[in-house]
Specification:
globular, 6-stranded parallel β-sheet, alpha/beta
Amino acid sequence: MKVFITGGTGFLGTALAEGFLADGHTVTILTRSSQNRATRAGLAYCEGNPAKSGPWQEEVGRHDVVINLAGASIFRTWNETSKKTIRDSRILTTRNLVDSIAKGPQGVTLLSGSAVGYYGFQQDGEAERAVQFGARVVFCRI
């Protein structure tokens, strides 16, 4: 299985990537900079900002599973500006991933992770949109 992870260099993403690699899957991690990143068999890095459209989106369609864990850090002073940054980073990343899925082959599984403590128990409208492009969408509230 080929797995694409946004937020793959964070705490949860690193553990997931290691688990997939240990099980023999290949993993591509979207990162803003691939410099000084250790690679090994089955692990690749793709450069790009998930909150912005770009060439990285072409890579999404080459994978069976897309895991979305990206977003601006919540460990900061919370004011109106930082809350907008946090929210926008998640919405724009999800929108860009779904747009990528729309252009690729059908049958991708999108796992969309977010914090239930912040968003509450609700559907993620942006990620849910991937269903119309033949994706299976799984919501993971962490």
